[in-house]
Amino acid sequence: MKCIKSISGMKNFSRMQHSQGFKIGFVPTMGYLHKGHLSLVEIAKRNADKVVVSIFVNPTQFGPNEDLDRYPRNINRDKKILSGMGVDALFLPSKKMMYPEGYLTYVEVERLSKILCGASRPKHFRGVTTVVLKLFNIIEPDIAVFGEKDYQQAVIIKRMVSDLNLNVRIFTGKIVREDDGIAMSSRNTYLSSDERKRAAVLYKSLLLAKDLVKSGEKNCKKIKNRMKKLIKSEGGKIDYVEIVHSESLESLLSIEDKARAVVAVWIGKTRLIDNMQLK
Amino acid sequence: MKCIKSISGMKNFSRMQHSQGFKIGFVPTMGYLHKGHLSLVEIAKRNADKVVVSIFVNPTQFGPNEDLDRYPRNINRDKKILSGMGVDALFLPSKKMMYPEGYLTYVEVERLSKILCGASRPKHFRGVTTVVLKLFNIIEPDIAVFGEKDYQQAVIIKRMVSDLNLNVRIFTGKIVREDDGIAMSSRNTYLSSDERKRAAVLYKSLLLAKDLVKSGEKNCKKIKNRMKKLIKSEGGKIDYVEIVHSESLESLLSIEDKARAVVAVWIGKTRLIDNMQLK
To answer: Which residue among A177, A252, B69, B178 has its CA within the 20 to 30 Å range from the CA of A79?
Structure first.
């Protein structure tokens, strides 16, 4: 596996692959890899000839009081894992390289980036779309893979790709869960052992919603109230509990085929998210 | 010359040229072509193997009370001119194709897009950078050519290309002027014959600034006051008269090597712009 640290080096690698007729699959990450990431790498491997993974803890998607500085890192472990999976290139740019002095350009997907996670993290998705667009321009992937754990992010990226006429096809990977159902996330390492147990309530609340729908409940408000009650009973502090349309992310009053429950909950000082298709 | 109306048709054309090893030069325009545009086409021809010109009156760069609806159009004349110049493809997308229902994504170069023309046209440059980025993604040019008449626009496009790691090289073409010095612009057609005569005052004010600098004047405020006085004497209504650094566009107090005078003036109901390097 090639470890590439410069933008020009990365561009050259991609150009070389394309000139030989290879399709590039790309998985952008912030590192500290878990099985969720690895499932995305597998999707890239199945749908492209060469796989590029990036590790970059992107400062522009963190708010001023968020966890940029303490975001977990373990590059050597990540390298071993990716190399073992047959990844062809790991792109490791520096902050200074990605956002040099005088940097001024941002891309934003309006409306979609202001709701749900965007309501409590106002510049988060602007940072995500900007860095993803930059990585696309540097790596020029034929396909790119995003995880459904960050469901809103995947919807926003797809919208950006379509709106900006980008030449990349977006794949999404299903949520990978621990034995107790909690969605894999690098941020789970922030949890104390007690919090870790209580964090399963996000998944439980989604299952509850699914069960209620299965038993014929169509009223989203009623379902959300039951979810909120359950989450609070485990000491979770709710950022949002919503039932939305899977594509427009618009809030639904009544359950329909594309209904998806999405939750963001503080467990202690850690903000966790999860989501589930309800039908 | 191929006239291409669909995005997929345009992408196919470009892919075909690239697969044969040809470099593509691109000149984006809003049509109603004049000698200024044609000088940009010549630059594209000299620096690339195949030349693509787009004609698209981009709605997102016009404000609600601006001249979108009355912007001059003459596609048949434009086609003849471009075909006669040996242009390889003319891209003519529709508004609906470029901004389909549900369109949400915009790119913005902060700070630079809020000053000078951006102060009186708040969403103008956001519209310009968005459409140019879309056109770059559709046409995938190796080089693209912009005119220096829209000087701020050229600076902003260069900043976007650098910030977003785009794989295109930007060239700029010098301002082409009529006999009395007025910069060629499709909007000059709005002027009555009396206004047309008075419009030469933009150029005259720039020459005055250059002469003052030549004679040793270094105080930008004094130079700007002389320019304003001259413009007002011809009945021009000043939007801005500024002396800025050619790259940062920051306002200068004292003349330096990269000083550039930039002006925006209303002549009757027509807003005209012009600029000149002072040293």
So the answer is: A177
Q: H or E stretch including A238?
A: strand A237-245
> By C-alpha distance, which of B146, B129, B112 is closest to B43?
B146
d(CA A30, CA A68) in angstroms, rounded, equals 11
Give the global pTM.
Answer: 0.97
Stretches in chain A below the pLDDT threshold 70: none
pLDDT tens for A124-171 read: 999 999 999 999 999 999 999 999 999 999 999 999 999 999 999 999
Q: CB distance from B245 to chain A under 8 Å?
A: no
HEC readout, B98-109: HCCCCCCEEEEE
Q: DSSP letters of B30-47?
A: -SS--HHHHHHHHHHHHH
List the single residue in B with minimal CA-CA distance to A138. Answer: B165
Contacts of A103 in chain B (CB under 8 A): 163
Q: Rounded to whole angstroms, how far apart are CA atoms A205 and A182?
A: 11
ipTM above 0.95, yes or no: yes
**How is A74-123 classified by DSSP, letter by letter?**
-HHHHHHHHHHTT-SEEE---HHHHS-TT--EEEEETTTTTSTHHHHSTT
At B178 the pLDDT is 97
Amino acid at B181: G
Q: Which domains does chain B have, with CATH numbers?
A: 2-173 (3.40.50.620), 186-277 (3.30.1300.10)
Q: What is the pLDDT of residue B122?
A: 96
